[in-house]
Amino acid sequence: MPASEVVAALSTRFAAAPFSLGVALARESLVEAARALRDQHGYRYYLLASATERADAIEVLHAVRHPATGDTIFLKVALPKDDLAIDSLVLVWSGAEWNEREVYDLFGVRFSGHPDLRRILLPDEYTGHPLRKDFPMATPWGFRP
Amino acid sequence: MDPLKVVDAPPQGSRLEDVAEEVVRFPGGGVALLRTDALFRWAQSSSLWPLTFGLACCAIEMMAAFAGRFDLDRFGVILRPTPRQADVMIIAGTVTIKMAPRIRTLYDQMAHPKWVISMGSCANSGDHYRNIYSVVPGVDHVIPVDVYVAGCPPTPEALMEGIFELQRKIREGGRAGV
User: Fold this and answer.
1) FRET partner for A108 with CA separation of 20 to 30 A, picked from A38, A77, B28, B51?
2) Could you give the ipTM of this predicted complex?
3) B105 contact A CB<8A
4) Would A34 be classed as within a structural domain?
5) B3: phi then psi, degrees, rounded to nearest 5
6) pLDDT at residue A5 above 80?
């Protein structure tokens, strides 16, 4: 039985409403999947973007919600650390704009197609992306614990 | 003591005799003779106008200090909405490296003489945010500080104690006219 049918069967029998589900996607299919989610399945409400650093990849996460049912779907894309480029979802959900800026600011993920990819929390002249594991523990002014 | 009872005596430090070594009062009232630097210190310490400026949770306690229960107006401490009219800057909260240049700009826009109260552990030293990537380890890396108020956050009473300490410092001539 394919995993999608297992999920459907389990969610019908056990999941509490509203339901949430994470889907891992290939980098190339993200925008296409997002458009299908919005246009064919009614997931119009963009929740958040986040990222997680794994051993050899940075995993970008988008969360979207169906406004009528409250169901939430997480779209996850793993990016190799030497190529942190991913298509922006701003043209699908405009609410993603500042969330993607935050992920860029703190993790250094480049969202291609983003209309205004600047830092949002840290000052523009800041160097580095502080939530990365390779970010030095010493603070930028050389201050150490 | 009944807290609602109206007290006729002036607050501690508000009389001319509290700042000047010698005050000559002429009969009939209304005219007194004293040194001008003492007179200026008396005036400065009696009307400290802080800039309305809050950075984090300490600002909530600062607002409480200015509101009805504590009522800093009765000490001549009246909030001003612009640095051009302010004498005191109360740094109430965490100073981030993005905020630091703005704090410096606001401080530079204040007219002399001016003073700074650092309110709470974050503004004093950075506290538990001291060594993270976005926080300045103490506002005295950005502007000079006259009085540090301890606490996380300090109570309104503690902030009032810091304001009284600054008034005392001005009356005694510490950092006058800076």
Assistant:
1) A38
2) 0.74
3) no
4) yes
5) -65, -20
6) yes
For chain A positions 64-123, those within 8 Å of chain B (CB to CB) are: 121-123
Q: Do the domain assignments include residue A121? A: no
Residues of A in contact with B133 (CB under 8 A): 122, 130, 135, 139-140
pLDDT in tens, B118-134: 999 999 998 888 888 88
Pick B131's closest partner by Cβ from A121, A126, A139: A139
Which structural domain range is residue A69 located in?
3-83
Q: Please name the residue of chain A whose CA is at the shortest distance from the CA of residue B137.
A: A143
CATH number of residue A56's parent domain: 3.30.460.80
**Beta carbon pairs, A and B, within 8 Å:** 24
Secondary structure of chain A in the HEC alphabet?
CCHHHHHHHHHHHCCCCCCEEEEEECHHHHHHHHHHHHHCCCCCEEEEEEEEECCCEEEEEEEEECCCCCCEEEEEEEEECCCCEEECCCCCCCCHHHHHHHHHHHHCCEEECCCCCCCCCCCCCCCCCCCCCCCCCCCCCCCCC
In a domain, A76, yes or no: yes
Q: Is residue A65 part of a domain?
A: yes
Q: Does residue A49 have a pLDDT over 50?
A: yes
pTM score, whole prediction: 0.81
For residue A144, the chain B residues in CB contact (below 8 A) are: 131
Q: How many domains does one find in chain A?
A: 1
**Contact across the interface for B132 and A143, Cβ inside 8 Å:** no
Q: Is the predicted pLDDT of residue A144 greater than 70, yes or no? A: no
| Lowest mean pLDDT across A95-99, A107-111, B5-9, B15-19 | B5-9
